[in-house]
Amino acid sequence: MTDQKVVEHTFRKKDRAVTMGRIRSVKIRDEVVSVDPLLLFQRLLTAGDRSGELPDIFTYEMCSYPPALFESPDVMRSANKASLADSLWSPTIAESPKHPDQVQYVLDGGALLHRIPWTKGALWEEIMTMYTEYVTNRYGKATVVFDGYRDSPSTKDCTHARRSGSCIGAAVHFDDTMALQTKKEEFLSNQQNKQRFITMLGYRLETAGCDVHHAKGDADLLVVKVAVDCAEHKDTVVIADDTDILVLLIHYAGRAKHNLWFKPNVKRESKKPQRCWNMSITRCHLGSTVCSSILFLHAVLGCDTTSRLYGIGKNKAVIKVKNDVFFARQAEVFVDSRSSPENVIEAGNHALVSLYNGAEDETLNSLRLRMFYEKTARSTAALEPRTLPPTSGAAKYHSLRVYQQVQVWLGNGDQKPPE
């Protein structure tokens, strides 16, 4: 290289340093054997560590974000909420008596908005009329509960952003005589538009004889409370698609004096038969332990405001709370409105250790190290960080977020603000 110009010098291939990252195969007795350099590094790390520093190292995520809880630095892992409903459904519930014709219907207004397709160019008065006729023809003088949309931040903002994607429509000032000039999805992606439309639609439904309620924020809890109140006087059917409402009904339906059903709308392309949940039979089938812990089980493994744990299904938590007394005790801490932040963090760590099949005396950090050893030893591919439990530092905030959501569902949101 001496006295040569940079643009004229070329490196010889035989002088190139061979790093582990470049090794893809080795030749052993004329046989080419594939090598995963990252797996080789991980195995050498476990076999050759003599410093005793690995336990300290595994108290850190070793990533720029906790991959067991987040898909990227700014995006929590999205929940698979429908899987919980699938795990709770059983032949016993399926064979329960269907609801009679003369019932009081309670509709989730959020799901109702997506029932009617909009035609570009249609007058807003025509769109309102379609919704009003749809409700009154199918459900009579139903009770409809709408969400509320505010400009202030919310723990559900991450879900709203994911659902709308990059499409955020402009604010539209409209009245009955004006025509729709944009796509439905684009219009509803703007919260001001959605709130104005809901207010106008609510007035139309009230004029048609329906009972309309508007929540300050998320309407799930209000839907369930209104349904339980209706079931004080007559048999009631809740029409909604959200698993959150099903979970809340399982928790609250024990207070209903009359029969209470949950009936999701079947999507046209769905091949599954329509389910109709009889709440009293569902609660009897699940048992008191599951019914009292259901809010925690749903939140800890992912809902609209909390992260999903990578690789842990909701069915596992349901089985766990039935058979593991230690895990069930941790759920009790999250339901108790008097629990201190320290108790919530400790119970959250114990609960996650249990979900990852750790021992009662293990911590998340020690479990991370043990799972790293075991997975590295038996795996044929390099271990991905997301397959390990989160650190206790990351689990701390997940636990606090879960606790806050459970308390909101229990009606204690004003006493347990997100901050």
Radius of gyration: 27 Å
Please write the string of helix (H) and strand (E) elements.
Answer: EEHHEEHHEHHEHHHEHEHEEHHHHHHH
What is the CATH topology of the largest domain?
A: Rossmann fold
Mean pLDDT: 90
Brief write-up:
It contains 18 helices and 10 strands.
Descriptive tags:
419 residues, alpha/beta, Rossmann fold, six-stranded mixed sheet, two-stranded antiparallel sheet, 18 helices, 10 strands, 45% helix
Describe this structure in words.
This protein has 419 residues and is α/β, with parallel strands linked by helices. It has two domains: 54-80 and 290-409, no CATH class; 99-275, Rossmann fold (3-Layer(aba) Sandwich). Helix content is 45%, strand content 9%. It has 18 helices and ten strands. A six-stranded mixed sheet has the order 7-6-5-8-9-10, sandwiched between helices. Strands 1-2 form a two-stranded antiparallel sheet. Strands 3-4 form a two-stranded antiparallel sheet. Helix 13 crosses helix 18 (392-409) and helix 14 crosses helix 15 (325-335). The radius of gyration is 27 Å and the shape is globular. The termini are far apart.
Helix-strand blueprint:
Blueprint lengths: L24 E4 L2 E4 L2 H12 L5 H4 L12 E3 L2 E2 L5 H7 L2 H4 L9 E5 H5 L10 H16 L3 E4 L10 H8 L19 H5 L2 H17 L3 E4 L5 H11 L5 E4 L3 H10 L7 E4 L13 E2 H8 L1 H13 L13 H10 L1 H11 L5 H15 L8 H15 L13 H18 L10
Parallel strand pairs: 5-6, 5-8, 6-7, 8-9
Antiparallel strand pairs: 1-2, 3-4, 9-10
